[in-house]
Amino acid sequence: MSQTDTDLSYSFARDKGVVVLPGGGGDIRLGVRKGADPFSLIEARRVLRRPLQVQAMEAQEFERALTERYARDGVSGDEAEAALDNQGGLASLVDGIPETADLLDGDDDAPVIRLINGLIYEAVNRKASDIHIEPHEDNLSVRYRIDGVLQEVLTPTRRLAAPLTSRIKVMARLDIAEKRIPQDGRISLSIGGRSIDVRVSTLPSRYGERVTMRLLDTRNALLGLDELGMDEVTLDRFREILAQPNGITLVTGPTGSGKTTTLYSALSVLNNGERNVMTLEDPIEYGLEGISQTQMHHKVGLTFAATLRAILRHDPDVVMVGEIRDLETAKVAFEFASTGRPVLSTVHTNSAAGAIQRLRDMGIEPYVLAATLKAVIAQRLVRKLCDHCCKPHQSTPEELAMFGLTPEEAPQLWRPTGCMACNNTGYNGRLGVYELISVNSGLRDLIRADGSEDAIQDMAFAEHDTLFRNAARYVKTGQTSVEEVLRVCRREEEH
User: Fold this and answer.
1) Strand, helix or coil at 164?
2) Which ranges in 126-204 belong to alpha helices (H)?
3) pLDDT band for position 189 (50/70/90)?
């Protein structure tokens, strides 16, 4: 933070144990950490050049005040863009940081702030979903997750770890003194007129705290159903399911597969202004207009199950539960759905049929599942081949057989090469792959009879695409490669 007549630099305040507090009228209220060197007061008085009202503070109270004072230092898109353009990229920002024992010992901690600005700005420009900062024995690894794959962008010296982590924790209003336990926070910022929320998570590791920042861009989340990339048959079936008045619809897939985006798109269809739509989320990723969203807070007992029971007294017409993690949450959700209202939620499983087995393993009775479950949709995201550098190759009999294609349907397939446009990855953007189980009378009988996962899979997809078969359309049209589909989707087994 740049120093003003009524403030101190962050590094000075942190190291000397003094912080300017709000209020005080004509004088300046100065919080002093217990045990701080008395000469710090003299130095602060010299810098501020104003009469001081001194207030002694316990260490924890001081750290909280320090965070509150300096957390307002956000990311400036204009400054970050100028710094990157003028200095030649992220590596130049690292090179511009002085070689000192403690990078924040000086009066100006601007170089570290510029680096954080640059990291976030560049991540947004490259459409990264996450920034991973991890200290190792000799260096610091900074990686972006782009299109679902981690790419290393910087490996500066490990001496950068402490000041970088400390500054990010201040911006996210976390306890900078606590390094033994994980912490979660949030930074709200605006870049180029776009509102970006950054979810910050810290975790102790062998060589210091590692930091993960998830970038949430509202423009990427609020998609219509027809923008999700479903094929026409799946899209029509999904619309029919959402039009039904009751039952549970589950979305399943690994972290980062787009489950939240699908749920939000479904909610936008159900939120017609005549319904009371309520969500329980952990955390709330994006604000939705006209929908009541509740953030879970497990430390005070605000769990999915407890909060779901509470919101049922608020007369909801539609409920979205962020995730069904345990039997208690599952039971309350199914009880609510059995009263004639729709419920949307997610479950972490590898396939749509696996979600049904997972609920049975939790303890949901088969007859309850059969009566209440409406649909399960499983999804993945495959990377899209770069339009500038993908190259064709002659399809092999093995590749054609794998996807059930004929030489006439796909005489040639496409492979990634790598160029400047795609950062030499060969891919740019992602495409949605889906499989949908709609619980009809036959499946209902099979679930009630406690049929096996394989039996449910065979019946559900006798006439409809599995994830793997759904991905074949992208291979056939040259939008993605065989290798990418095999990376993301499990190859179908012969029965």
Assistant:
1) helix
2) 161-171
3) confident
